[in-house]
Design goal:
mainly alpha, 2 strands
């Protein structure tokens, strides 16, 4: 998803109009933050780091927001 959105952001829309905050860009940034910031989420051969409980809770809220954006249609194909 991250690569698809980054390659063609104009194909996507976000319910909050693009302005100084950049609607689609903001969603993409949220996705990257979650993907890059939560290194231990799936395990694997790469090194991970210890994450704090606060960081884990924040990641859950971030993920829930992203899912809600998609399920509600707030973030969708244009």
């Amino acid at each position: 998803m991250i690569a698809d959105i980054a390659n063609k952001p104009a194909k996507w829309k976000f319910a909050i109009a693009d302005g100084k905050a950049g609607g689609v860009a903001t969603v993409l940034h949220m996705m990257r933050m979650l993907w890059d910031g939560q290194t231990s989420r799936h395990g694997g051969p790469g090194p991970t780091r210890a994450e704090t409980p606060e960081e884990a809770r924040t990641a859950v809220h971030l993920a829930a927001s992203l899912v809600q954006f998609a399920v509600s249609g707030a973030f969708d194909l244009a």
